[in-house]
Amino acid sequence: TKVRASIVGIAPMPPSCALWLAVCVALACAPVDITASLARHSARKGRAHTMAPRSQPCNETTVPPSASALGLASRLAAAVSAGASTFQVASARYVFGNTSLRLVGAKNLVVDVAPDTEFIFSLGSGVQFVDCDNVTVNGNGLALDAATANYAQGTVVPPVATQSSFFAAFDPSFLTPDSGCDPFVNPGAPAGAHVVLWDPKTRTMIPTWTSTPMASSSVVGNTIWKINLVHPNSNPPLAGTLVTIFPRRGFTWSMINCSRMSTYNVMLFAGGNEGFTECCGEGGNVYQGVRVTRRPGSNGLLSINADGFNVDSVGQGPTIIDSEVGFNGDDAISVHNRIQVVCNVTGTNGLVIMDLGQGKYEWDKYGSALHGLGSGDLLKFFTFDTLSAMGESVVANSHNVSGSEDAMTVCRAAYTVMQSKTTKPVVEPFVSPSLFAVQFSASLPHGVLDSGDLVVVNFGRRSSTGAVVRGNHFHDGAQRSAILGASDLVLDGNVFERALSGGLHVESEEWALEGSIAISNVTITNNVVVGAKKIQIGIDIINGTTNVTCHNNTWAVGDQRTTLQHC
Fold this sequence. Notes:
Strand content: 35-45%
Oligomer: single chain
Shape: globular
Number of helices: 4
Mean pLDDT: 84
Number of strands: 40
Radius of gyration: 23 Å
Structural class: mainly beta
């Protein structure tokens, strides 16, 4: 069956523009009635556009799509509509600006990109694949970069810094770190703007400083700002120290509900959020020879603003080989699924379950793992406090009740209980909630029905199992080297260098509702972890994890090297 294609808008220009430009490719199995869609949105919002508007950052210049980008989108849509199995991208600099390039429903397609090709995006925009299967991108060095820097960058200046604040002069060619406007308007939250310090001589992150959220900022003259921190740091920055402050928004190279995707030789030099991300499909994707790093010769310090790789709630985890992640704003790699929360018991075989969800935008219909929940699926139940097993049940049917105010009220109460049980800031799940009424084929376990404790859920079919991470170089990230929150995972022959917040972790993060509960069958071999300061020797393994094999892993700081044949 040939796939019919249509073009829809996904990332509108700011409100100052008279016309909302759409430049994305939707390769859908059924044609889209754009006129009717625009009419519906116009009726709701009072103007003709295809997405809710996105606030404009303080000093980011609006960048419209170039003619070459529009032409590429049109030709790609036509090729898929015609049932083509291959598509050629000619060498050029394609400026997408404040819009994104989306492929929807593409199947059995090979995209060959000519060398010396660039895609240029603004903060929060990028490339996204939705409902795709067996698509290969031969990047041949395809580079994704930013039209305007995705973060603020400057130099610490007098007066003398304290543990809770400092002053810095910020480069006007980067974003301005104004906590009074987008994208820095949400300081202090778990996903708010973070502050990292850099050595001006080595241009690497200062190891005595940990990435910390900005609490607020205020301008004190020309380009000089006072930066207030959420968490005091015992090593205040000295004058001359370089600083970056980076928010999180959008996506860079994203896959939603996809399977058997292959990405080769693609470079991410900038991105407003995570780099290579995938969520909520059958998975089994491959990344080889890809790079997340800053552009050679650039005066910018960061590459992307968050994780290098983030794998969330796919059926089979990816294969990641011979690749690089460096100078990124969060973890180098995180493989996990989502932990769901039981909000309400509706009967002996019925529950309302909250799923965290992944996106704020209208196209993210697969923004949570439970969108794929169906008859015959198995859900396992655990206590939130100790992650102790409470039993399991088989699903009869499930439907989305996210629009129910009653369900939302109950789930907000569950969130409040969850926050009371941890000192860490539980991620706020109600920006884009996914609530599901689930009926089971038999009575639920007594512990689930009668528990006075908070109950969490693991959806095994979407647990990102079976990932292989081999022969990669991860370095100079602002958080941890690797978060391994999935079973049947292999981590072999990788080099991890100078992560600010430590080494290798086999764990779930229940406070963030991330990770596979009861992780098992993890193999960690032949890796090297290099620290810029004293590091923990050994692998951090959460209680309850079973069958973890560790062999020939080495930790090094300076001239000291320790190789362990166990975990």
